[in-house]
Amino acid sequence: xxxxxxxxxxxxxxxxxxxxxxxxxxxxxxxxxxxxxxxxxxxxxxxxxxxxxxxxxxxxxxxxxxxxxxxxxxxxxxxxxxxxxxxxxxxxxxxxxxxxxxxxxxxxxxxxxxxxxxxxxxxxxxxxxxxxxxxxxxxxxxxxxxxxxxxxxxxxxxxxxxxxxxxxxxxxxxxxxxxxxxxxxxxxxxxxxxxxxxxxxxxxxxxxxxxxxxxxxxxxxxxxxxxxxxxxxxxxxxxxxxxxxxxxxxxxxxxxxxxxxxxxxxxxxxxxxxxxxxxxxxxxxxxxxxxxxxxxxxxxxxxxxxxxxxxxxxxxxxxxxxxxxxxxxxxxxxxxxxxxxxxxxxxxxxxxxxxxxxxxxxxxxxxxxxxxxxxxxxxxxxxxxxxxxxxxxxxxxxxxxxxxxxxxxxxxxxxxxxxxxxxxxxxxxxxxxxxxxxxxxxxxxxxxxxxxxxxxxxxxxxxxxxxxxxxxxxxxxxxxxxxxxxxxxxx
Length: 491
Fold this sequence. Notes:
Layout: E1 7-15, E2 20-28, E3 32-37, E4 43-44, H1 51-60, E5 72-74, E6 79-82, E7 84-89, H2 102-111, E8 114-119, H3 131-140, E9 148-151, E10 153-154, H4 157-161, H5 166-175, E11 181-184, H6 197-208, E12 213-217, H7 221-233, H8 239-245, H9 248-265, E13 268-271, H10 277-288, E14 293-297, H11 299-303, H12 327-339, E15 344-345, H13 354-357, H14 376-385, H15 392-406, E16 424-428, E17 433-434, E18 453-454, E19 457-463, E20 466-470
Parallel strand pairs: 1-5, 7-8, 8-9, 10-11, 11-12, 12-13, 13-14, 14-15
Antiparallel strand pairs: 1-2, 2-3, 2-4, 6-16, 16-19, 17-18, 19-20
Helix pairs in contact: 6-9, 7-8, 9-10, 14-15
């Protein structure tokens, strides 16, 4: 039984479809218990687009100032969205914790309005490819997370080579509550090797029986490695060589390969961190054919292009796999978010020690990863909604509701409705914030967004009714408040 007293958040603006909001008071404990409408009709965002407009609106509509009684707080007319869900993070516990760990990664998440993360299996040691390894990871995370969390399972080439019973491993992981299964067509990790197309096909057949998604890092191994060998033989060590090896063709060829596997097996296929127009076109064509194919992209693909590698201040910080592409690719990805062919925006959060791993003059040796979980929500509202690339509702869905639905977490997560977890992020869309690496909460304090101004700021984040982060003031919850969530599957 929950003994948490009911609290009240007054004068919150919550999404009401398209670019409309509703002014409400929300009553909650660990869940939302009541939503009280303050006005008879929704408000168009353009009417309250800045603080002065909001103050004028309040006067004209006789909006009362909230009382300040016990358990009451005011949202001040700021936008309240469901706690965001980032379904692609690498927090590394247990494993490569010199780069990132769950304390730092999850703290960065809640400061970025993210209340639920889904952690990848490949940067844990041992990797989450068996139920035993999953149990070890779960034990290592006890009392270490600020955010609620789910685990991805994985299928790696190492287990094929060692003759393991991968079908049974998949069944056991599905029963233990993983979100899905991560796979690679090309991997740079010795502990989590890539799959051949035939191995991918076998894995897809086993995964399909669970009903869970198969997530694929889609770059063609033969194309990337053959080009890399040639370029390195020519003593090419620059960022251009890296991008040439991992170009649009490398991605689109791999996307075509796994779509063919999805067509043959019926597996739910999810393409992670999609970066190219050509890859997106193949995803959209598969969707129009009725195949269960989805994809995600990341803020760095929506903001940067390869021209930004020319900036020595951020060049190494921007390295990821796949790399960012061209302006045409960037605009295609924004269109994919608008038309629904891209289902959500994730970060692929992967940090490191930048002094040690982002400093080599040989670009091939630079660590590929960006710690972005703290910046995704303000980025998408600033660069998406406020620049008229997306509607307000689309922005919320891409950050929260769509992922919650896809992974079976909705409406417990990703929703502002009666009975949902009281997971909120309070956003100030009237003031700007400039990104500063030294202020980041992740372990590796670097970002290609350094010095960029977002016209949106996360003021406060609640998880199950407790304030877990706020821009000004102390949080109510500490490390360990975050809980593990198990995905329930229906065979």
